[in-house]
Amino acid sequence: MLMMWMCGCYGLVLLVLGVMGQKLPTRDEGLFQMQIRDKALFHDSSVLPDGAEISGYLFRDTPKRYYFVVEEDNTPLLVTLTPCDAPLEWRLTLQELPEDRSGEGSGEPEPLEQQKQQVTANEGTELFTYKGNDVESFISTSSPSGLYQLEIISTEKDSNFKIYSTTTPESDQPYPELPYDPRVDVTTLGHTTVTLAWKPTPTGSIMGQPIQYCVVINKEHNFKSLCAAEAKMSLDDAFMIAPKPGRDFSPFDFVHFGFVPSENDFKDRSLTTNRALSNKMSRTYIPKPKVADIQKICIGNKNIFTVTDLKPDTQYYFDVFAVNTGTNMSTAYVGTFARTKEEAKQKTVELKDGKVTDVFIKRKGSKFLRFAPVSSHQRVTLFIHACLDEVQVQVRRDGKLVLSQNVEGVRQFQLRGKPKAKYLIRLRGSRKGASTLKVLASTRAGGKQPFPALPEDTRIKAFDKLRTCSSVTVAWLGTQERNKYCVYRREVSESYGEEHRRREQNQCAGPESRRKSEKVLCKYFHSANLQKAVTTETITGLEAGKSYLLDVYVVGHSGHSVKYQSKLVKTRKYC
Question: To the nearest whole percent, how much of the chain has pLDDT over 70?
Fold first, then answer.
């Protein structure tokens, strides 16, 4: 078994607890420097525990060494190292345990510090070496007793890593086991979605261990470990977490907690040369980069998942990790990549000067319109009639954005013109459903508007006290412009409600779409005083106790009409 040396210290516990909260109390700098030089205040963090995973951090070109002791021959041994940020070089060596030289023959082992000094003087037997960014393991079913040294170095950049070591690999099994086919498959591919599927891990399906799957999506490359993905997502947050007591902690780690020691500090430490030490300790805090292009989603124990809200015609890399929620240790599946389907190129609709164009937009879709006046012009008048829900309108003149607004109902915009200017109009539909619009662009000054003017309130009001068994009385607002108003009625069932009325609320559907039998009357109306621009009408010839849907259409001079909001009324059953 591995022998572990852990030295608890009250002062150390207080320090680590303070660091984990990301805030350190006010301290005396001279006292602090004296304390961190005192080896008695810090345990030997370079000893690997048996059966536990630890996290560590490397400065570039600065090796780090870990030690453990195997006391008995023929002991199974597993050492797994997981690079998180960069490729690592690591080497495992064996130094036989020295014989007890004490005259008393107490049988007590030599202090670890003395054994490490002997290892430094004698390189020992090399058992395993590796260089790369794969998760790699040394495993032996029968290891000799002795002092083992694990040396790690990162030659590319500062890096995080994880180490797991155990003398009982058969019984531990901390990492989830991969299925016989560890690949992640792309089952369906769309413009903005990709569906992934993979075989479940036997650790969860057969052994009953608590397993969840985490999916990582990014645009750069596949990841070989979950800690590599998490390091990419938060390059500096990992450094700011205080290690637990007994887990990879040294005075040099204070630089990660916001301290910037001078190059004269820690002169009595001989881990590196003075020059290397000065370079490392003078590093400044690097702000966290933007990580919007990488995402981690943990989905429980499902082995099918659809990734949504992707960009069309974009290559994405997908990785799946099985995580043992009991040990928080993970295993990577063989990741995959896929390019989403290219969005169909939309045909740009050409607008003719002074002509109304009907436009249909799918739910959450877009349409592009182009207006290129053939003659010089001082201004462009743009009419937008949103027949259903609100739509977003953007206008660019020769590539420059000149208008961006949401439009509901009928709106008119005046745009400043330029010689030979071209206008690109983008219409973005509603999230609720499909949108229909009528659009007109004109450079002609003056003249009558193609669409009738509307009041701010287009509701129809019904007077309950004037309701009879055969008639209802309604009112609606008008404008200062003389327009033609046509009233239509339609009998509806008792179950007809607001949801039905909302679905039929298409302001662009004119009187020509109605049956002649549904027409009540047409009349002209206007008022110079907007405060008095209201008209009433009594609709007769109705049946007792019946429900009717009433519509009012206002018709413009060019024949284009706009419908007011429909009104559901009901006659009295008894009179």
Answer: 75
What is the tens place of the pLDDT at every residue in 205-226? 677 788 999 999 999 999 999 9
Mean pLDDT of the region 347-374: 89
Mean pLDDT within 296-317: 94
Using the Cα atoms of residue 216, residue 218, residue 222 and residue 227 in order, give the sign of their dihedral: negative
Residue 254's pLDDT is 38
CB 351 within 8 A of CB 340: no
Which of the 8 DSSP states describes residue 66?
A: E
Amino acid letter, residue 295 = Q
Mean pLDDT is lowest, of 286-290, 520-524, 554-558, for 286-290
**Three-state secondary structure string covering 316-335:** EEEEEEEEECCCCEEEECEC
Q: What's the CA angle centered on 175, arms 170 and 181, to 5 degrees?
A: 100
Domain ranges of the chain: 52-96+124-172, 174-239+290-344, 349-442, 460-570
Pick 130 or 204 by higher pLDDT. 130
Contact 551, 515 (CB under 8 A): no
Token pair of 408, please?
């509901």
Instruction: Tell whether the model's pLDDT for residue 526 goes beyond 60.
Output: yes
- Give the architecture (CATH level 2) of 349-442: Sandwich (2.60)
What pLDDT digit, counting tens, does each position of 156-177 carry? Answer: 989 899 999 998 888 777 889 9
Q: Give the residue, 33 or 139, on which the prediction is more confident.
A: 139
The CA distance from 381 to 414, in Å, is 5
Residues 6+ apart with CB under 8 A from 149: 65, 66, 67, 92, 93, 94, 95, 116, 119, 124
Q: What is the DSSP string of 131-196?
A: EESS-EEEEEEEEPSEEEEEEEEBSSS-EEEEEEEES-HHHH--SPPP-SS-B-EEEEE-SS-EEE
8 Å CB contact between 35 and 41? yes
Q: Please say if the pLDDT value at position 326 is more than 50.
A: yes
Residue 345 tokens read as 């190129």
In this predicted model, what pLDDT tens digit does every residue of 266-295 receive, in sequence order? 333 333 334 443 343 334 344 444 545 899
Q: What is the pTM of this model?
A: 0.48
Q: What's the confidence (pLDDT) of residue 521?
A: 94
CATH 2.60.40.10 fits 460-570, yes or no: yes
Can you tell me the distance from the alpha carbon of 314 to that of 269, in angstroms, rounded to the nearest whole number?
Answer: 51
The label of the residue with tokens 């015609």 reads 313
- Strand-pairing partners, residue 94, are 125, 148
Look up the CATH number of domain 52-96+124-172.
Answer: 2.60.120.680
- Which pLDDT belongs to residue 447? 60
How many beta carbons lie within 10 A of that of residue 36, not counting itself? 20
Query: 521-544: buried (b, 16+ CB within 10 Å) or exposed (e) per residue?
Result: eeeebebeeeeebebebebeebee
Q: Do the domains at 52-96+124-172 and 349-442 have one common CATH topology?
A: yes
| Separation of alpha carbons 193 and 189, rounded Å | 6
- Architecture (CATH level 2) of domain 174-239+290-344: Sandwich (2.60)
The kind and range of the H/E element at 229 are helix 226-233
Mean of pLDDT values over 9-31: 37
- CA 339 to CA 311: how far, in whole Å? 9
